[in-house]
Amino acid sequence: MARRIASLAMRLALGIVALTLVLTLVYRVVMPVSTPMLGRWLTGQSVTREAVPLERISPALVRAVFTAEDQRFCVHNGVDWKSLSEVVEDEGGPSRGASTITMQTVKNVFLWPGRSYIRKAIEIPLSIFVDTVWGKRRTMEIYLNVAEWGDGIFGAEAAARHWFNKSARDLKPSEAILLATTLPNPIERDPRKPTAEMRAKAGRIQSAYGAMDDYIGCLKPR
């Protein structure tokens, strides 16, 4: 019986790995949904998301998110090993401080929320694989289409329409920076009514925003 259970567990694990690898290839051309979106659908909660290509998202938002979330995005292989080695882990599990945009995308698309050594152990190699298969522009495109920007508001297009009543392609730099300040706690933060903490974060993003030209080259249109 123990051997049968072990065999079934191994087959299940291999099946999950194979499915993940196949989905990674499929998502090169098909826009995925996120696990939080699936969770809301399964529990009868609303989901608002309109997937758009990166070309239909304001470069200001791309730059603001890059500046706020992962300024080494173009130079790492999906995992920022320098930050990962320096981050201090708390009792709740690995800190988000070392989480790259690629790792956040992998978590949103394939894994589950919360801090966990098990999740991080899966997230790291999968992020390297995703970085190789998708490349930088596709990874950012998927991230901006699955990130949550409010209760049930997913993706840049839905966020821009919900918070600023305009398309994501029409966001001004000031609006893009305010959206970036809501990450990673979009449920508790309103970009139209920024708190003192959000205004301080917006100031830091604004200070670095204009100096990103030498770092953001991988996301420029081909």
Automatic annotation (TrEMBL):
The keyword Aminoacyl-tRNA synthetase does not apply. It is an enzyme of class 2 (transferase). Pathway: Cell wall biogenesis; peptidoglycan biosynthesis. Keywords: Cell inner membrane, Cell membrane, Cell shape, Cell wall biogenesis/degradation, Glycosyltransferase, Membrane, Peptidoglycan synthesis, Transferase, Transmembrane, Transmembrane helix. Residues 45-204 form the Glycosyl transferase family domain. It holds the Pfam family Transgly. Gene3D superfamilies: Biosynthetic peptidoglycan transglycosylase-like. Peptidoglycan polymerase that catalyzes glycan chain elongation from lipid-linked precursors. It catalyses: [GlcNAc-(1->4)-Mur2Ac(oyl-L-Ala-gamma-D-Glu-L-Lys-D-Ala-D-Ala)](n)-di-trans,octa-cis-undecaprenyl diphosphate + beta-D-GlcNAc-(1->4)-Mur2Ac(oyl-L-Ala-gamma-D-Glu-L-Lys-D-Ala-D-Ala)-di-trans,octa-cis-undecaprenyl diphosphate = [GlcNAc-(1->4)-Mur2Ac(oyl-L-Ala-gamma-D-Glu-L-Lys-D-Ala-D-Ala)](n+1)-di-trans,octa-cis-undecaprenyl diphosphate + di-trans,octa-cis-undecaprenyl diphosphate + H(+). It is a single-pass membrane protein. Belongs to the glycosyltransferase 51 family. It comes from Methylobacterium brachythecii. Its EC number is 2.4.99.28. The gene is mtgA. This is Biosynthetic peptidoglycan transglycosylase. It is found in: Cell inner membrane.
